Structures are given as C-alpha cells and as structure tokens.
Amino acid sequence: MTTETSRYLGKQGADWWRGAVIYQIYPRSFLDTNGDGIGDLQGVIDKLDYIASLNVDAIWLSPFFTSPMKDFGYDISDYRDVEPMFGTLADFDRLVEAAHARGLKVTIDQVLSHSSDQHAWFQESRQSRDNPKADWYVWADPKPDGAPPTNWQAIFGGSAWQWDTRRCQYYLHNFLVEQPDLNFQNPELVEAILGEVRFWLERGVDGFRLDAVNFCTHGELKDNPPREEIAEGFIGVRPDNPYGYQLHIHDKTQPGNLTVLERLRALFDEYPSTTSVGEVGDDDSLGVMAEYTQGGKRLHMAYSFDLLGERHDPEHLRGILTEMESRIEDGWPCWALGNHDVTRLATRWDAEGNAAALRLYMAFLLTQRGSVCLYQGEELGQTEAELSFEQLVDPAGITFWPAYKGRDGCRTPMPWKADAPHGGFSTDTPWLPVPEAHLGLAVDQQDGDPDSLLNAYRAFLAFRRTQPALVKGEIRYHPVHDEVLCLERRHPSSDPGQRLLVALNFADEPRELPAPRAARALEEAPAMVNGAWQDGTLTLPAYGIAIARCPTDSEEASWDV
User: What pLDDT is attached to residue 1?
Assistant: First the structure.
C-alpha cells in the first residue's frame, strides 16, 4: 500500500460505507480508449471527474481479472492480474490513486464461489484424484448407473454436474460448465482464497462486492426436493429454466458459508475502512441478508434481487422493506434498482421517457435505510436495448432464447456524445451495439440541461449528503395512502428534536393526504422535491416527491392515514 493511499484512508471514517452511494461500472461498456470496441480501465480513469460530479461515494468495478470471458469476467483464470483487454496492473494502480484523489472509494467484484476451468488450480485438480489440489474443487463419484451424483441444476441450464474423463468423476458448477465450484471445505483452498483477497487489499482497494456469496459451500450430496410452484427471482430463473423447479436446500446457503464469511471479515478488519457487500440469491434472501450482516462479524452489507423485479407498486415495495427492517437488527442492507444482470430500470418499471417517474424511483431508492448501488446509465434513464439473436453474446440469453433474451440488453455501452460514432463510446464497432434510442440520452445532451435526469441525480445526491437522517438514520414506514409511500427518517445524534417525513407518489395523478401540521418543507431540497405541505395537508403532483422536517413531539397520528 502506497504512502499516499495510507494517508488517504487514514482521513476517512471506518464506517464510510454505511449509507454510501456506490456507482457500479461495467468496464466493458463504460469507455473504450484504445479503439478495440471494448471498454477498459483507462476509460474509467478518463471519466472519474464525471463520476465524482454525480456526488457518489465510491465506484464498484465489475470483474476485470484475467479470464477466458465465457461469462464476461465472472470466470476468473487469474485472481491477481488484469485481463489484457482492460489494461494492466499498473493501470489499475493509477485508477485507485486517481479515484482516491477525487474522494472516491474503490470497490471491486470478487468471485469466490467458483473459478474458470482455465485457472491453474483447476487444471491441476482435474489431472488426478491424488494431486496437491485434487480437493480444491467439488468432485464426486457418479451414481452406480453413471448418472450425476445429485439432481442439482445449474442456473444457466442443465445439470450442475459435469463429467470429467481424467478423474472419471463429476465436478460441480452452479453456473456455466466452464465455472467449476471451489471447495471451501478444504482449509488449504480457504487460505489460498484469502491470499487472493489480501493481494487487492494491499493494492489499496477499499472494498469488495462478493458475487453469489451464498454459493461458497454446499451441503450433503442429496437430491433437492421439487417445488410445488416454479420459483423466479434470481439471474435468469424463469418458468422455462429448470433451476426454478427445485427447493435449493442442499446446494447453496449452507451453514458452512457463515464460517467462510467470518474468515473474510477477520481479514477485512486487518485493513481499517475496508468493506464488503455480498450478492444473495435465495428463496429467503431477506433472511440471508440479515444473517450474513448481523453482529459485525460477517459481511458489512448484503443485497438481493428483491427490488430488481418487475413489480413496483408501493404496497409491494413497502412489504419488502418493512420485512427487512423487522429482521436485520444491527445488520445493514444495500439496495439497488438496477445492475448488469437485470432489465434496465426505465424499461422494467415502465418509465421509458417518463422523467418524472424516473426521478421518483431515484428518490425512493435514495431515501431508504441502507447503502445504495447505482448502475452506470441509470442516471441517464438508459433503457433496455432490444437485440436480435445474432447480436447476443450472453450465454444465458443464447441458451434460453426466445423466452429469455439474457443480460446483453442492460450491458450495452454508455452513450457519451450523441453525434459521435457509437455514442462516443468507441471509435470501432463496440462489442454490443449502441441503440439509436440511447443517443438522445447521451451525457453531452443532459450535462448542460438543468432539468435533465442526470442533473436531477446530481442535485439529489448532493442534497442527501447534507441530511444525516437520510444517510444513516433510522427508518419507520407508514401505511401506503392511495399509492403514496410514506416513511420517516430520524438521526437522533445529529438532530435530536427533528425527524424527516418522506412521501412518494407512485401514481400518475396528483394525490392529497393528511399530514402533521408542524411539517415544514426543506428549503435546501432540490426543485424535484415538489410536494406542498400546508395546514395539515400534503399535496403531491403525479410522481411527486415530498420531504419535510417535523418536530418529534408533533402529532404523529395524522400521518398514519
């Protein structure tokens, strides 16, 4: 760790992550600086001023490690190096230094549950049953009839077991066949993984987003029972995917995961001010989020796919959030409305071209208790790209076409300049096309427009930073009133006599509801906060946003309408 990095980290609070806003960058699609059609680390460096202008606290880099790219970087063949298409380790070091100089923390994706089948560990493991790394992956003998050891299904289709002729055994892969699962029941493997994480901590990384973190360990090799109803809710899990036909009681979210997370947390604690956020995909994802973050001994934060579905009526959203609050205790959630695995927010929540609705969804996300992840292009209102089968590169989309078109539609490049070739993303043909519809959303089109969605994000994020109650305060939800979600945030240590009232109108028509007479609109709030508080009544325009300050001893009953 450099002296400059140590000095920078020393100035930050250890819990900077609590309530932080983290901007997710998908490097392949951010900015190409060498003309090969693929984004790179230099592209991230070149746009750090733009990122800082959003008033976010950190960046999250999706995988840039050495990889054969079967799953676009989530199949790692070398945990300690940069895939040449993205740059070099020196580029990464420059990125960290440049981000820190702008007050931005740097978090990186880390894929611990599996590696690429091209990783040197797996290449050695598959050679025999008695080599030094023979048990670093999950191997099992076939059933007497030659069938796979269990009925477990892979998320990307087919059996989760792949036959290997060298060992005459099956290996486990919860995702692609090229992504064999590591065996965290092997102490040597655990130590090796901790060493890979330490490598990046020593380079000044501030945190890790841990991919599929509840998949690190498996249970007994027994068949999963069938479901009564097909389940949805994880990456590509739809009625046409047999993964959703089972109750996954043996193949993920096992008690052994807790031990792994505790070892990781002990390592993070050696590096003050670092953090971790785990991705959870499970039938009871909220319960897992709570268990994985409670007690200060496992993950710092966790997020799930609960807010990444299509349903977005306020009753449904309130149900998720209140359940989380009732279960998480001293744990800490992280919320997102979009990422590289799901349909773009503007399309998924039926807000294409509706700037008022997109501002509302932004305010909804940024007023919840927890940390926040924003996916690149969300601040532009970027929509889901419609691609032909011939344009697809995502293995999930290719496998399940046409019922499921995969994840390429949310991964198309950032549009920087409307009049430039490929939206200013690259001078060559991009790895995925830039849709014509995205050019009008380009950064240069929105940058100077005070009414643009981009500047709404900037303004609201700047405002949020000045409100401790919104960043780290407690939360209380009130009943939904005629499609208006009502909540309050309190931060007693910073403002013992005050609370903030928040009302979010999810309706496309104006709404009026009773409110405490003592409520007063925040003068410092940006213009998009457009609700009117007057004489015990709150008036909201369609998709309106209202935030008020109210004394704690004022009448609360009138808010519980």
Answer: 41
Please answer whether residues 435 and 412 qualify as being in contact, where contact means their C-beta atoms are separated by less than 8 angstroms. Answer: yes
Query: Hey, what amino acid is at 37?
Result: G
What single-letter amino acid sits at 307?
Answer: L
Same domain membership, residue 361 and residue 335 = yes
497 and 369, same domain (yes or no): no
Classify residue 239: in a domain, yes or no.
yes
Reported pTM: 0.95
CA 389 vs CA 69, 236, 395, 413, 422: distances in Å: 19, 16, 11, 18, 20
Task: Note whether 414 and 507 are same-domain residues.
Answer: no
Q: Is 211 a catalytic residue?
A: yes
The one catalytic residue in 57, 83, 211, 378 is 211
- In this structure, the answer to whether residues 366 and 495 fall within a common structural domain is no
CATH no. for residue 98? 3.20.20.80
Nearest to 265 by CA among 188, 178, 183, 194: 194
Domain count, the chain: 2
**CA distance between the termini of the chain:** 55
From the candidates 130, 145, 229, 270, which is the catalytic residue?
270
219 with 288, same domain: the answer is: yes
- What does the pLDDT read at residue 445? 98
Q: Is the alpha carbon torsion for 130, 131, 135, 137 positive or negative?
A: negative
Query: What's the per-residue H, E or C state across 40-83?
Result: CHHHHHHCHHHHHHCCCCEEEECCCEECCCCCCCCCCCEEEEEC
Residue 531 lies in a domain: yes
Please choose, from the candidates 474, 451, 337, the residue with its C-alpha nearest in 3D space to the C-alpha of residue 502.
474
* CATH number for the domain harbouring residue 511: 2.60.40.1180
Identify the domain containing residue 70 by its residue range: 3-115+187-463
Q: By three-state DSSP, how is residue 371 classified?
A: strand
Q: Which residues of the chain have pLDDT under 70?
A: 1-12, 231-236, 494-497, 553-561
DSSP reduced 3-state for 32 = coil
**Is position 560 annotated as part of the catalytic site?**
no
Return the pLDDT at 7: 40
Q: Hey, what amino acid is at 87?
A: G
The CA distance from 228 to 223, in Å, is 16
- Alpha carbons 112 and 179: distance in angstroms, whole number: 11
Please check whether residue 127 lies inside any domain of the structure: no
